[in-house]
Design a protein that fits this description.
Two copies of one chain form a homodimer. Chain A is of the alpha/beta class. Chain A is about 45% helix and about 15% strand. In chain A, the strands form six sheets. Chain A has an eight-stranded mixed sheet. In chain A, helix 14 runs antiparallel to helix 15, helix 15 (about 375-380) packs across helix 20 (about 530-545) and helix 20 packs across helix 35 (about 870-890). The radius of gyration of chain A is 33 Å and the shape is elongated. At the A-B interface, helix 26, helix 28, helix 29, helix 31 and helix 33 of A face helix 26, helix 28, helix 29, helix 31 and helix 33 of B.
Chain lengths: ~900, ~900
């Protein structure tokens, strides 16, 4: 026979995780507190397994549940001397749903259960407070009627408002006993009228119905949506806790509040929190009365006119502080404690890890370790790496007023305010005049990069989390909102329509890249603060992690930023981004429209010194750390102008015939450029491009080595390999150039040639390719595109609806698809290292900065992850966590 | 110590394949004939391993090769009484390179080696024919000078022409002994002058150099190109045979010729062939003299004025016929025998499987089995399945004159002649007037299908073997030349420029789809003949094969054709092709531009009866055999007009605003449509489309079942699945419709829901998907695209150059990439059947009609292949061969 019911004092499993799984986090916390000897109102939990049974049996309760509840109620009677049918000491309980996940406000509580027409009188007699008793009954009927019986909450509120108005009262607390009795009559009539059913008088029936209702709340629309947003599995189910009532509304030495064991905003040590005198929990939530500070220090700091708990009720404060210390010591983390003060005695209702800002989280984790409460490993594990984002970008000030005019994707975090511009040229012009601007585009392309660089932030109408705009913006550390489908960009008339309003060029808007919001006007900002704890924690992470952390950096500016964030080299330098700069795009285009190899070589010769210069700078910045340079990747048509008028202008500036330019662009046009003539395919068609790039790399390595006195060992990465023979070809070209450069300069450059693994075939044939390739780097953006057959540029057409319909849990372009893409990576790693034992393997797709993906990379023993500069700290932390978790997994 | 040299009589391995690998096919054939006791001039082979050693050691011969050759020469002396230095009986030999593969004319022979200034005199004395001896010497110096020493062939010919002119002779045979002696002096002088080196007099040196030259010829440009075209691996290397000379130029009872054991054009039984009297082999090749028929019957048939061998030299004919019979019996196949007649005695120089037409091949295979020479299995294995193509389409008549104006890809076999038209509308108009036309397009799209259907053949400037034009044309069984990059199509002026000529609309051209040629004007055709042997062979194939053969058919016409070719059901019916027909495209477009689900449903309701009608017809034609219907696959924008003017016209005909149409088209535009909003992604976005299609299928199944009296069990195939949950969704929709239809009609339809495996993720997660999917069908076109990351529409930009540079051996869109795509298929099959044992799995990509791919499908135990109707017979044969080979492999 299954055990469906656990008293709080009963052990439900070996680890607290087991307890939470079975009893919900609230039930588990009550059990834990009870076993610590802390003052917890007695009670019991009904398990999540009972809830599973309920859903698997057409919403019926297990047969033996009622008898187990009866046994638990008998135990309560022994502990408290109270019972539902007791003539002098009536039992009142709360019934609360609660799952493993904390879902605040998602599922409704019922308080004061057990009251009826008879018990209310007994309670009045027992407490000597008739008004209190009838107030409890009134509240109970209202809650039960709403939550369990399903009568619209507002109908009760209307009646309550009428009663107040009739009595000429402002507040509920002003209602007299008689008025409350009349109100109860009207509540009961409302229920009878709405449901053709009476409010149940039998407490045991009330309890059964409340438990059913707690289970049913798991599938409420509200809860379902919350689960789907927060990726909480449906089959976790909910438990229900049944607990003796304690009352915070029993007078001047009663109250209710929440206490944090440390400051949740700063992480400072010492209890902290708020409470309401003479109130029940729901009054706190309602926010009608202003809560008081718990400590006197906080009262002074906030300048509150109300006495603090510490001052007013020092004994209660002392109890609370003692409990708080005990709880933090037990849980070894900052706790958020719900308490009720009943006539001078503190009762604890829940304790859980307290919510905190990123800054506080850092400080708390470091302090707890320094205090010897936790280990440094635990400190490293304590921080959700994604949180660090908050610390690395300016953000909208807390509490600032927001006029949201559109919602898009949170493509690149941070906030920015500026004038609207619609073209990269305008952005550059404004930047030259030091005017901050937001570049607004339908979508961006490589031609827009200079304008993106000049702007404070980027807003696009189309494109996903890994669209061009998003990727480039993240690389630049600039805020970006992408795929804001509800805005309309009218280039011709320089208009942006959003949120029913029309903005002109020059109007001010603000982007919140962390939330994906577009806001009207200027909004207050706060600057990032890298507190000392932040640095300490990353040091500890570095001491722990096995994998290296490199950066994806194409420019000296990005490389410097990444270096300052602790990058240990460059894992991906996309050389083509260098070709879009103003002085380079013209020779690049000359190269593309060349009719002969000779013409092509002439154009490439102009690009050589520029590329060499770029590489020298990158090598110098990275000061002997590894730099992986990817040879040209995109199809050539990306470098040509697309629009008719641009073609004319470019042709004119190049001094060539517009028709020639147009016809070359048409020739190069592709149906599916993503699957087209790019990467190594270009390098094989035009080996002279590979020659120029290899030469620039080798000459730069020699020059930078001379300047810095450290040997530079460039890693040359060939993109889009699917066949070993492709790599044979390109490596042949590179090796030839290396020999030439050595002959010319007398200096031998040490280098490695490797490949991106970004096509399924390369993963499957990794053992062939590893015969030639000296390292691998997973290009998981393209690998995800080809494995799923989804173009990331077009994915916004259906991936959001896939998430909404539950077809995918997470956008696979943000978090690695471990089952599919991940399995290919595992296969590639195994096969590659079979052929070349110990081969260096990394990841340089966008996933290299995603903690879940980093965890996976550790599990398949990659050597490093590489991510955009602003995610380097996140990756350092995530890699450390992955190391610890992996050790745990494998031990 | 390695054995580099084998006498013909020596055994070199257990199987003839071993012999051919080591000795080349010529060496192996000489060995075999020697061991049969047939008259073979004695000699020896130097192995391909010696050639490998030569290339692996910087073109040096193995140290011990010379001594092994000396031993072999001693054996020759014992057998013939001849030696290089013998004073009375000089040894003359031929040296011939020859690999496992037959590479006619690719590598050069040296005859009469051993002659020098001394031996020529001895030969003159021995034969009593001084002119003969000097003619041999003259020929030898010329060949040796050219082939071994590398003096330009033409320089010798010039001298020879001079000598003829000086003597006033027309023919070489008219040269006197003295003139020949003078010619030899001039030849030697030429060599000395060109090379500053004398023609070598020592026969043993001549031999060593000739062997080296034979090995070197393997890497000649000519041989390399031949290998690359014919997919012959470089590391097969060549052997060299050294063989005593026999002379066909020793008078009226001497000669040389080629004899087939059966007729190579018709397959008829009985020897057949040609010979030249008093000639050496090279005279036959030169083609100066008209050869005579071997049999009298053939002489009569051809009306030749020259006596046949049978008539003129009946004894020699008798010898030859005896040898031929023996050889055919030994090899159990029709043989092509090279022979030399020396003074009345027939010597055999080579015997190999004779070249034959497809028709002859069929007849011979069936006859040999009927005669009991071979088994039926051997007969089935004897035919290269691709050959059948010749028999299934009208073709250009043999010997017809061709004016090739452009070369493209042989996209769909057969030949067609017609007027040039440039638009599908013109094609339809012409078809209505019974005027045959060739539709010429830059590329085709689904909108052109009605015009393609009306045309006799299709020519496109762009697109590969699996471009839209190619795939549709093959489906229709119409000739198509695609990707003829050298033509220029000028739609505006209705001009086609090709081969330096300009053709107007209405001008006549001819396509040879089997060769990929475009020919000017009208060319004579021959109609396909399905001889009785063809049918017999396919019956035997059907009795042998394990896999089923279905067809890819979208229309009743295609289904009927496939049925007549023996298809056992439909493996792929692409429902979207049905939407392009004139009466359907308008409701389809209404559906696409609909703003609401209601509008969409209204448009779909118009399509329902038409789809139902199509399915009824297909089910009736297939008469109870399985029919797999794929739900809609392409992105919706494919159904909308692209060009500005088309948009106007369509909008007008639909009675809607052109701007609305345009704006919807823009909304739907995709960067990479191949990876876009299509397949199951559409069906999830617009479940009402799936509902309509499922309803049409179920209602048609009921109706067709009623009409034919046979239960129809449709297989509904969901395209582009990468996640199990996608299939859950779509299957849910289908199942709901099935229940509705059952409720409405009272008839239960039996059906299966399965999926295409056409994305790498689906292959990797086949075990998940198989939990829901009742069958799999590999969509290898898309699977190849995504596995390689190559768009087949753009592949022509670089795949041809990949083939040319040896980066790929074969276009992976034509022949499955077994290592990569194949490995994914293997993984998917294993994982899928792990989850659903015995699951039915097929292939419906273009590869389903490719013999090499079919062989692979057998090896991974697929249940059936599905291919275009005209490839069904090929697939039947290939599947049978695969069954036999797989049994051999696994036994």
């Amino acid at each position: 026979m299954a055990q469906w019911v656990y008293n709080f004092a009963e052990k439900s499993g070996d680890r607290s995780a087991d307890a939470a799984r079975l009893l919900g986090s609230k039930g588990a916390s009550l059990s834990a507190m009870a076993s610590l000897g802390l003052p917890v109102p007695p009670g019991f939990s009904i398990t999540t397994e009972a809830c599973r049974w309920y859903y698997e049996h057409d919403r019926a309760l297990p047969d033996d549940l009622e008898s187990q509840i009866d046994v638990a109620l008998q135990a309560l009677r022994r502990a408290t001397g109270r019972g539902f049918e007791d003539a002098r000491r009536p039992l009142l309980v709360s019934v609360r749903p609660g799952s493993r996940a904390v879902m605040p406000g998602m599922m409704d509580t019922v308080l004061n259960l057990g009251l009826n027409d008879r018990n209310v009188e007994i309670l009045a007699t027992e407490t000597g407070d008739r008004r209190f008793a009838y107030d409890c009954y009134r509240r109970f009927i209202q809650m039960y009627g709403d939550v369990v019986m399903g009568v619209d909450h507002d109908l009760f509120e209307e009646i309550l408002d009428d009663a107040k108005a009739d009595g000429g009262h402002e507040q509920e607390t002003d209602l007299s006993v008689e008025e409350l009795e009349a109100l109860i009559v009207r509540y009961k009539a409302l229920i009878a009228e709405e449901l053709e059913e009476e409010f149940p008088q039998a407490p045991r029936v009330q309890l059964t119905e409340a438990v059913k209702s707690a289970f049913a709340s798991w599938m409420s629309q509200r809860a379902s949506i919350h689960r789907s947003i927060n990726h909480i599995p449906e089959d976790w189910y909910t438990a229900a806790t049944v607990q003796c009532m304690v009352f915070g509304n029993r007078g001047a030495e009663s109250g209710t509040g929440i206490c944090f064991t440390r400051n949740q905003a700063t992480g400072e040590r010492g209890v902290y929190g708020e409470f309401l005198l003479n109130a029940q929990g729901e009054d706190v939530t309602a926010g009608i009365r202003t809560p008081r500070d718990i400590t006197e220090a906080a009262r002074i700091a906030t300048g509150s006119p109300y006495a603090s708990l510490e001052k007013q009720l020092p004994d209660a404060f002392g109890q609370l502080k003692g409990h708080a210390d005990k709880l933090e010591a037990h849980y070894r983390d900052m706790q958020e404690v719900e308490f009720t003060l009943e006539e001078g005695k503190v009762w604890l209702l829940q304790s859980r890890a307290g919510k905190r800002t990123a800054r506080a989280a850092m400080r708390i984790a470091v302090d707890l370790a320094d205090e010897g409460v936790t280990t440094r490993e635990e400190a490293v594990l304590a921080i959700e790496p994604g949180m660090l984002d908050q610390l690395l970008h300016p953000t909208i000030a807390e509490g600032a007023e927001r006029t949201v005019i559109a919602q898009g994707l949170p493509a690149s975090p941070g906030a920015a305010t500026g004038e609207i511009v619609f073209t990269p040229e305008e952005a550059e012009k404004a930047a030259a005049q030091d005017r901050p601007v937001i570049l607004v585009r339908v979508e961006t392309s490589p031609e827009d990069v200079h304008g993106m660089n000049a702007a404070q932030g980027i807003l696009t109408q189309r494109g996903g989390m890994t669209s061009h705009a998003a990727v480039v913006a993240r690389g630049m550390g600039k805020p970006c909102v992408s795929g804001a489908g509800m805005i309309k960009v009218d280039y011709k008339n320089h208009l942006l329509t959003a949120g029913g309003r029309t903005f002109r060029k020059g109007d001010i808007i603000t982007l919140d890249g962390g939330k994906g919001q577009v806001l009207a006007g200027r909004v207050a900002m706060q600057q990032p603060e890298l507190s000392g704890a932040f640095g300490t924690l990353l040091e500890w992470a570095d001491a722990t992690r096995r994998m290296g952390v490199r950066c994806n950096a194409d420019t000296p500016k990005e490389a410097r930023a990444a270096y300052s964030f602790g990058a240990e080299g460059i894992g991906l330098c996309r050389t083509e981004h260098m070709f879009f700069e103003e002085d380079r795009i013209t020779p690049m285009r000359e190269m593309i429209i060349a009719d002969t190899e000779q013409e092509r070589r002439a154009a490439l010769a102009k690009l050589l010194p520029m590329q060499r210069g770029d590489f020298i700078e990158l090598f110098e910045i990275m000061a002997g750390m590894p730099v992986t340079i990817r040879l040209i990747d995109p199809p050539l048509h990306e470098f040509l102008p697309h629009e008719e008028e641009d073609v004319e202008a470019v042709a004119k500036s190049m001094g060539i015939d517009a028709d020639r330019l147009k016809s070359r662009a048409t020739e190069l046009r592709e149906f599916n450029p993503m699957l087209g003539h790019r990467g190594c395919r270009l390098l094989i068609s035009y080996p002279e491009i590979a020659e120029m790039q290899a030469r620039a790399i080798f000459e730069a390595a020699i020059e930078a080595g001379r300047k810095t006195g450290r040997q530079v060992t460039p890693e040359i990465m060939v993109p889009l390999i699917s066949l070993k023979r492709e790599l044979d070809h390109v490596k042949g070209t590179i090796d030839t150039v290396a020999a030439e450069v050595e002959k010319e300069t007398g200096v031998r450059v040490h280098y490695q040639v490797g490949t991106m693994i970004e096509l399924p075939r390369a993963a499957i044939r990794a053992h062939d390719i590893a015969e030639v390739s000296e390292f691998f780097s997973f290009g998981t953006n393209d690998l995800t595109q080809t494995t799923f057959g989804i173009s990331r540029d077009d994915a916004t057409q259906f991936v959001p609806s896939y998430e909404a319909k539950g077809v995918v849990d997470r956008d696979p372009f943000i978090s690695l698809d471990l089952d599919g893409v991940g399995d290919l990576m595992r296969i590639a790693t195994e096969r590659g290292r079979d052929a070349r034992p110990g081969m260096k393997i990394g990841i340089c797709g966008e996933h290299g900065g995603d903690p879940v993906s980093i965890d996976f990379c550790e599990s398949i023993a990659l050597d490093y992850v590489s991510c955009s500069p602003y995610r380097v700290p996140i990756a350092r932390l995530a890699a450390a966590q992955a190391t610890i978790r992996n050790q745990t997994r494998s031990s």
